[in-house]
Amino acid sequence: MYQIGDYIVYGNEGVCRVDEIAPFHIPGMTAERLYYTLTPLYHDEKIYTPVDTEVFMRPVISREEAIELIATIPGIEAAAYENKNLRFLNEQYEESFQSHDLIKAVYIKRCSANERGRKLGQIDERYMKRAEDRLHEEFAVALGIPKDEVREYIRKAVGGEEET
Questions:
Q1: What is the four-CA torsion angle of 2, 32, 98, 72, rounded to 10 degrees?
Q2: What InterPro entries does the annotation carry (predicted)?
Q3: Of 31, 51, 136, 151, which residue is 20 to 30 A from 103 by alpha carbon distance?
Q4: Residues 6+ positions from 65 with CB-CB distance below 8 Å
Q5: Over the stretch 135-151, which tens digit does the pLDDT of each residue have?
């Protein structure tokens, strides 16, 4: 169970702070369940979710884990999605996004497109932005830097290679 003040990645909401852990009273229900009150760091809202929810939840990575992960970026292999059927391409990206395993696939596709003198399509760009946002949110918290400085931090850390 997480504690008040912990930072977690919650579903597709991104990084959230645990603000409260308390029973949530629902009229007509006798069993009281404990709920987290979560505040997304980069959205203005509150989320109430049972502590035993099936929604993907994990602690934000540590500073050391973030530094180690950034160092491995150049060597990470991932399949870039190549499909002309936009519905199928969208489904592939959504599945990867739900599994929290997307950023490298889109990054590889972007590099491949750049090498051929082409740009990413709209679907590719949309998922690249979503994946980058989630990655940058978590790295910002782990590294203790503003979110808008993460891209440059990664670029410098991997030796000035093309931006992620």
A1: 10
A2: CarD-like/TRCF_RID (IPR003711), CarD-like/TRCF_RID_sf (IPR036101), CarD-like_C (IPR042215)
A3: 51
A4: 142
A5: 899 999 999 999 999 98
